[in-house]
Amino acid sequence: MANHILILGLVVLTCSLAFAFEPSPLQDFCVADPSSSARVNGLVCKDPKLAEAKDFSFSGLHLRGNTSNPVGSKVTPVTVAQIPGLNTLGISMVRIDYAPWGIVPPHTHPRATEIITVLKGTIDVGFVTSNPDNRLISKVLKKGDVFVFPVGLVHFQRNLGHGNAFSISVLSSQNPGVITVANAVFGSNPAIADEVLTKAFQVDKNVVDWLQSAF
Ligand SMILES: *[C@@H]1O[C@H](CO)[C@@H](O)[C@H](O)[C@H]1NC(C)=O
């Protein structure tokens, strides 16, 4: 009996894990129809007979992003929002430009593993494993080096050089999503109660207020 319950538990767990990822497409493609008001998990397909090359293409990834901002980096996304033909295909990409010493702050993609390659510069990258270890796994990447950020884990990048740098990443979702830790925790709308943040971070209310004011 205990065995049966265990097996049932494993089956349920396996199914729920499988459902957490994008399903395999059941047709050649499902070009997103942004004008549809239907709500589905993903985007509604337009008539496949009307699909054309521009539904599957994007131009401009050779262009440098504007990194004049407080963190010194700029993400140029190429997801289903830019290429409607990515709908249901479980993949997307981004270009990231870095000013000298610019960073991509600690963040996570709730729906995607990311594989990154550096095309210019030297970039320190790392991710942190789940509780309770919270081990930092990091590496300094040079041009041509590749690194993986497993799905859901908090990760960051930092340009270690005096010059501009850039990287390209591929992500295992048409819509990977981004949760920037600092913005989510200190910049939520409305704000998370001070009592939660003072205990979570073991600091005074004025420190919490000060951090919130930055987001
Ligand atoms: C880059 O962004 C900054 C800040 O938003 C802006 O002032 C500047 O004009 C932009 N530069 C270019 C070349 O677009």
TrEMBL record:
A Gene Ontology cellular-component term? apoplast
Disulfide bridge map: C30-C45
CDD domains for the chain: cupin_OxOx
Domain of life, source organism:
Eukaryota
Which interval of the chain is the signal sequence? 1-20
Q: Which part of the chain is the Cupin type-1 domain?
A: 59-209
Principal localization reads secreted
Q: What keyword terms does UniProt attach to this protein? A: Apoplast, Disulfide bond, Manganese, Metal-binding, Secreted, Signal
Q: Name one GO molecular function term.
A: manganese ion binding
Q: Does the keyword Lipid metabolism apply?
A: no
Q: Which Pfam families match?
A: Cupin_1
Indicate where this protein resides in the cell: Secreted, Extracellular space, Apoplast
Give the record's family classification.
Belongs to the germin family.
Q: What is this protein called?
A: Germin-like protein
